[in-house]
Amino acid sequence: MILIATDDFAFAAPLAEELGRHGLASAVVALAQATDQVRSGDRFRILIIVASTTAEIGLDLCRHIRTTSSIPIVLLSGAEEQLDGLEAGADYCLPFHTDMRRLMVHVRALLRRSDFNEDERRLTLNFEGWRVDPRRRELLAPDGSHVALLAAEFEILIALCRQPGVVLSRRSLLDATHIGLGRPLERSVDVHICRLRRKLAQGGNAAELIQTVRLGGYVFIGKINPE
């Protein structure tokens, strides 16, 4: 199910109908209710934030959600807020009046990232006291605290952890994320790796488990214990 958080219910209604035509169920709530809805469980696969008149509230919501959840976020706002939205934690930032076809392309891209088979979805990946839960899209530090990741960072971590000891090229990691505005550059993976290492470093020396391979890409050298 897709959660639509909005300050414009007149826009959200046709958006929900369009999702329905593509076989996607949705729920529409006010912006102020979004955080509680996301925290209520793992039934929502994507959060679409519609901030047509309250751009700053939409950005604040992105930042707040990112402190507790790695749910993929699409932010619909003014064109001038698109870069701010990416910095706030949105995976895609689109102009408010984006046509439905383009929006659906981005929604489908995010859904493809979470379409694991059931066995994969059940497996929690553990390393050095860290826990990666693909089903809940959560990363838990050794002390049990939640570490907020962008959706792209989470997908890169999952891709690396599922193939420990295997060198993954920037292109393969980029393909795993479907990130970016327009055509994402392979070097954008370096930015996500840098941020991911920084977050892992806060809980010990796990950042060293992601190694750079010159002219190759990246490799995860830790021992993975799935359960």
Secondary-structure element string: EHEHEHEHEHHEEEHHHEEE
What's the total count of β strands? 11
User: Which fold does the CATH topology of the largest domain refer to?
Assistant: Rossmann fold
Give a quick account of the main beta sheet: strands, pairing sense, barrel closure.
5 strands, parallel
Q: Shape, please?
A: globular
Secondary structural class: alpha/beta
Low-confidence runs: none
Please tell me the total number of domains: 2
Helix content: 40-55%
CATH superfamily of the largest domain: Response regulator
> What is the percentage of strand-forming residues?
15-25%
Instruction: Give the CATH class of the largest domain.
Output: Alpha Beta
For the termini, the CA-CA separation is 26 Å
For the record, the CATH architecture of the largest domain stands as 3-Layer(aba) Sandwich
